[in-house]
Amino acid sequence: xxxxxxxxxxxxxxxxxxxxDHELPDEAQYIVFEIHFQQCPPCCQxxxxxxTSIELMQNRLRSSCNEEVPPGLHQRIREQTQRLSExxxxxxxxxxxxxxxxxxxxxxxxxxxxxxxHIRHDF
Length: 123
Prior knowledge:
The protein is α+β, with helices and mostly antiparallel strands. 49% of the residues lie in helices and 23% in strands. The protein has a two-stranded antiparallel sheet with strand order 1-2. The longest helix has 24 residues, at 41-64.
C-alpha cells in the first residue's frame, strides 16, 4: 500500500496508464495518485499528456475503423442462420462395439459397448 507522504514520482510514472484506465489494484491507490498529481505539477503534466494521447488514438481508431458493411451481408447472415436452425437441430450418433474373448475349452466372454452422442444446434 502506498503511504500518502512517501509516494514518489518514480512510483507514480510507471503506473500512470493504469491510473488513467482505472486499473490500479485498489481505490486507496487512486486517492494517493490523485493527491500526488495535485501536489506534483510535472507528474500531473505527464498524466494529462498520456490521457490526451490515449484519447487521440481511440478517436482515430474509431474514425478509421468505421467501414461500411457490404450490401446484403446482413440478409445473407440471417438466411444462413435461419437455414441452420431449421436443419438438423438434433442428431444422434450411435456406435456399438462387440468384443468376444474366448479361451478354447474354458470360457467365452462377450463384451458389448454402446455409445450414443447427442448433438444439438441451438441458434
